[in-house]
């Protein structure tokens, strides 16, 4: 059922047809982009679960068997992400390998990664944020180095990605936020660290973990509204003034008073 739901929304992006959904747009935008780049023309109706795809080019949107494309590729990335995260935390190769094998042979993970779903995309950003956070923590002995800035910025980017796919991404924002508060509290208690240096640490985290994610999250919506410029099933959720900007809408180019 969900594949029918999100596959249809991927087609909406390819056809630039406006729609409304309860989830933020990033996941569906990426599904549509994957389909577009693989040659899918957005014509499959996605009317009900179980419909045959016939001659439609769906491989780019649905990883089938050994075709690790998009959702399947993102799902397969969870294994190295988990491996690297546990290795960074435990410094134990057996523990990291065990974690990787558990995911490799997890039926739920394999199944979710085969279909046109938001779950593998969401998990990619969630686990990417955790890995980036752990990597940044391990660079604490060389603050403001290139690697430190890289992992801190990547953490912020993954936070924006997680929130941009589903609002449940707030949980990883909470995790990173608590880790940051703990880190800053520890720095504040370091008597050898000047207040100026502490201020730099605080500013770096505000820029990378608050400003950057918010800017990227907002940019996702800007792209969403720029791409979907044709009238569609989501028109009725918005004002007449907004509908007048949609090509094909009955109110298109009508002068709407403030």
Keywords:
single chain; 258 residues; mainly alpha; 62% helix
What's a quick, concise take on this entry?
With 258 residues, the chain is mostly helical. It is built from 10 helices and no strands.
How is this structure best described in words?
The protein has one domain. It is 62% helix and 0% strand. The chain is built from 10 helices and no strands. The chain has helices at 2-15, 26-37, 71-90, 93-104, 107-112, 119-137, 146-165, 170-188, 195-227, 240-243. α3 packs antiparallel against α4, α6 packs parallel to α8 (170-188) and α7 (146-165) packs parallel to α9 (195-227).
Q: What's the layout of helices and strands?
A:
Elements (H helix, E strand, L loop, with lengths): L1 H14 L10 H12 L33 H20 L2 H12 L2 H6 L6 H19 L8 H20 L4 H19 L6 H33 L12 H4 L15
Radius of gyration: 22 Å
Order of helices and strands: HHHHHHHHHH
Number of strands: 0
Question: How many DSSP H or I helices?
Answer: 10
Domain module tally:
1
